[in-house]
Design brief:
This protein has 31 helices and 22 strands. The chain folds into 6 domains: about 110 residues, LON domain-like (Archaeosine Trna-guanine Transglycosylase, Chain: A, domain 4, Roll), CATH 2.30.130.40; about 80 residues, Methane Monooxygenase Hydroxylase, Chain G, domain 1, CATH 1.20.58; about 50 residues; about 170 residues, P-loop containing nucleotide triphosphate hydrolases (Rossmann fold, 3-Layer(aba) Sandwich), CATH 3.40.50; about 80 residues, Helicase, Ruva Protein, domain 3, CATH 1.10.8.60; about 180 residues, Ribosomal Protein S5, domain 2 (2-Layer Sandwich). The chain has about 800 residues and is an alpha/beta fold. About 45% of the residues lie in helices and about 15% in strands.
């Protein structure tokens, strides 16, 4: 027994081995299988192991019964029976919890462990079967029947099978990193085939029930075949594991340095609360507070899982993170409460906007419809008018009146369809379109969005943005507006869209059909004075650090600024002129100069410069000069049409940067004169032997349209007859070859321009009478309107 005294089992146990076995040279020991004088054998139940003959295995005992059994058996030098439990979790097994077949063993040495357990080094001797259980206290004692292994009949087959088992065992040891190197040494030093069979059976990586099946095999050839099948399955499993490991290792070898660095970064991020998991947790927390549909929830979960599968340092990770950040920031199904107090809304509109009575009435009607329907699927408003008349600020006032968030989207110069619909998130720098960005900015799904300058949308190589707006502004479609970045529909049906434009000529017809057009003309002189007193002067005093006592502008001074220093439909230039006066006052105060806070008309001209000349009468005080009325993108305006005769052959020359339509009007006018020269009192000689030249001043400005037709004809007749046109008369209308006068548009803007220019009398087509009647009479005071149907009436009224 001295050989076992030198074995350091503590060291072996420290290596983490649960079961240790090795071939021992028992030449110095008693070789008999068991003591024939021993009739009763203590039975030791063991868990998660099976004892085989000729195998040495350490058994650690923790149960009091087991410790007592081992100590008494060693003291009395008895053989013990080692049997496996059927259920390893059973702490106090009974006879029925034990297998019937086990192995007799001899205790070689007992080692007491510090925690109170003991480890017994045991050697298997022979298989046995329980015949009868004699007692269970203080431990199991039984009568047994010894089982002998049947020797193989075909020695050659058994020998070949054992060679295969040994070779396969060596292969398994080589590819399984969990088997210690000592196993290879032990395997090579086992001589007997039966010993090798039992050694491999005891130490194979199989479950206890499979090992029990091996132990219960009566023949060595049957045990060897069963063992070989188990080993073959184990080997295939290990090979598959190694293939996966090698493939993974190969991938790691390519990016080994990056991998370990990324692992370090991930660890640091985890310590600091960053990384993919923290991002995912952050999005989950945000999502818990959002109310959305099942469809949106499913889409979010799918995209979140995609984020979790990506590495935080990959480019796609940031793309996905930005997407989820935007996705969770959108106000899904979050709406502000509407305030349908029409009296309050009316008071607010009156406070913020002076004049524009018809427009404010239309807006109140619109709000009233929304109140009654409680449904935003109503026509989208489009405010059309010259610059500076308050279109954008009206949108802000509507938002305030409804108690909604206000967002302004500038569409001027937009030429990329992706600005409306967004970019696909796979592109670098991809982002959502302007519409969804505005929704996110507002924080609610029902803001008032002002689409500013919708008439100035461009069209480039990247699509047509105005076509993309067709879906946005269609109440029947925008309940599921698809943004390329969001990759799913978003409900815009509760959003109130208000578009603004200076002109509708460049707006697509389908887009116009989706909007309710509200025209906003310019302001009258009185309205501009009132706006200046209520809003503009106060604003400029505040912006220039002045108080009310520092600057005083009365009605005469404001009237002079408007008449002599501005020429516009709105009030932007007026505000600039008032700002100029306010800056002059600020300069005097800063330099501590003496000045009179009440600014006079003369002082206004000194501050703002030379006033605009009022020489209308002088300009038209010669034959051939007529004042026409025109409509531009900045409102109404007047223009002069000049004509002069020269010797020639009756030709026509036109200058002044005229468009094709305007040139055609001049040609029609001349042909009408040639056809009716007798009725008009023009000599045939002048028609045939004199050329006529028609010019429209301000040649750098392009001019076009049919509305100058009657003015051109009047100018030509005035030159041919050498008669002057009334000095304070203006006209607008289209002509035909038969001398009929046709109606034109922009009447309100044109008449306001006429009053600003000091015109006293205008000539319009009879069909435009309804347009004039829609204009407030206050706008047209001191202005006489003549309605005509043909050119003879025009000539009769116009020429002196």
């Amino acid at each position: 027994m001295t050989e076992f005294e030198n074995i350091n089992f503590e060291e072996i146990l420290d290596e983490g081995l649960g079961i240790i076995a090795e071939e021992i040279n028992f030449s110095d020991f008693d070789t008999k299988e068991s003591d024939e004088s021993q009739n009763l054998f203590p039975i030791l139940p063991v868990r998660n192991m099976v004892m085989f003959p000729k195998v040495v295995i350490p058994i650690t005992a923790g149960r009091e019964k087991s410790k007592k059994l081992l100590e008494e058996a060693q003291r009395e030098n008895k053989f013990i029976g080692i049997i496996s439990q059927k259920n390893p979790n059973e702490e106090n097994p009974t006879e029925k919890d034990l297998y019937a077949i086990g192995t007799l063993a001899k205790i070689i040495k007992i080692i007491k462990l510090p925690e109170g357990n003991i480890t017994a080094i045991t050697r298997g001797v022979q298989r046995f079967k329980i015949k009868r259980m004699v007692s269970q206290e203080p431990y199991f004692v039984a009568e047994i029947t010894k089982q002998k292994d049947s020797q193989p009949k075909d020695k050659e087959e058994f020998s070949a099978l054992m060679d295969n088992i040994k070779d396969l065992a060596e292969k398994i040891i080589n590819i399984d990193p969990n088997i210690p190197n000592a196993a290879q040494f032990a395997l090579k030093n086992i001589d007997g085939q039966e010993d090798l069979l039992n050694f491999v059976s005891a130490n194979g990586n199989y479950t206890s029930d499979k090992k029990q099946r091996l132990l219960e095999e009566k023949t060595l050839i049957g045990r060897a075949k069963t063992l070989y099948e188990l080993m073959h399955d184990d080997f295939r499993h290990l090979e598959l594991k190694n293939q996966i490991h090698q493939k993974t290792s190969k991938d790691l070898d390519k990016q080994q340095r990056e991998y370990f660095l990324n692992q370090q970064i991930k660890t640091i991020q985890d310590e600091l609360g960053g990384g993919a998991e923290s991002d995912a947790d952050e999005f989950k927390k945000k999502a818990e507070k959002i109310k959305w549909s099942a469809e949106v929830e499913n889409h979010f979960q799918k995209e979140l899982q995609r984020l979790q599968r990506q590495h935080p340092n990959s480019p796609d990770y940031n793309v996905q993170r930005n997407y989820l950040d935007f996705f969770t920031d959108l106000p899904w199904e979050k709406y502000s409460k509407d305030h349908f107090d029409l009296k309050k809304a009316e008071k607010l509109l009156d406070k913020e906007h002076f004049g524009l009575e018809d427009i404010k009435k239309r807006i109140l009607e619109h709000i009233a419809v929304l109140k009654l329907k409680n449904d935003m699927k109503s026509p989208i408003l489009c405010l059309v008018g010259p610059p500076g008349v308050g279109k954008t600020s009206l949108g802000k006032s509507i938002a305030d009146a409804l108690g909604r968030k206000y967002v302004r989207v500038s569409l001027g110069g937009l030429h990329d369809e992706s600005e409306i619909r967004g970019h696909r998130k796979t592109y670098i720098g991809a982002m959502a379109g302007r519409i969804l960005q505005s929704i996110k900015k507002s924080g609610t799904s029902n803001p008032v969005i002002v689409l500013d300058e919708i008439d100035k949308i461009g069209q480039g190589i990247h699509g047509d943005p105005s076509s993309a707006l067709l879906e946005v502004l269609d109440p029947e479609q925008n309940s599921n507006f698809y943004d390329n970045f969001l990759e799913m529909g978003y409900d815009l049906s509760k959003v109130m869209f208000i578009a603004t434009a200076n002109s509708l000529s460049s707006v697509q017809r389908p887009l116009l059909d989706r909007m309710e057009i509200i025209s906003i003309a310019g302001y009258t002189l009185e309205e501009k004075i009132e706006i200046a007193k209520r809003h503009l002067i106060k604003k400029q005093l505040q912006e220039n650090g002045l108080d009310a006592k520092s600057l005083k502008l009365g009605n005469p001074e404001l009237k002079h600024i408007i008449d002599a220093h501005t020429s516009e439909s709105g009030v932007r230039t007026l505000e600039k002129r008032i700002a100029g006066v306010a800056r002059w006052v600020a300069l005097q105060l800063a330099m501590e100069n003496d000045f009179d806070p009440k600014i006079s008309v003369e002082k206004v001209d000194e501050i703002l410069g030379v006033p605009r000349p009022k020489t209308l009468a002088e300009i038209t005080d010669v034959p051939g000069v007529v004042t026409g009325l025109a409509w531009t993108s900045v409102g109404g305006d007047i223009l002069f049409i000049e004509s002069i005769l020269s010797k020639g052959k009756g030709g026509l020359t036109m200058t002044g940067n005229l468009g094709n339509v305007m040139k055609e009007s001049a040609t029609i006018a001349l042909e009408f004169i040639k056809a009716h020269y007798e009725e008009l009192g023009i000599s045939e000689e002048d028609i045939e032997k004199k050329n006529i030249h028609v010019h429209v001043p301000e040649g750098a400005t392009p001019k076009d349209g049919p509305s100058a037709g009657i003015a051109m004809l009047t100018s030509m007749v005035s030159s041919y007859k050498n008669k002057k046109v009334k000095s304070h008369l203006a006209m607008t209308g289209e002509i035909t070859l038969r001398g009929k006068v046709l109606p034109v548009g922009g009447i309100k803007e044109k008449l306001l321009a006429a009053t600003r220019a000091g015109i006293k009398e205008v000539i319009l087509c009879e069909a435009n009478r309804k347009d004039v009647e829609e204009i407030k009479k206050d706008y047209l005071k001191n202005l006489k309107v003549n309605y005509v149907s043909n050119m003879s009436e025009v000539i009769e009224i116009a020429l002196k």
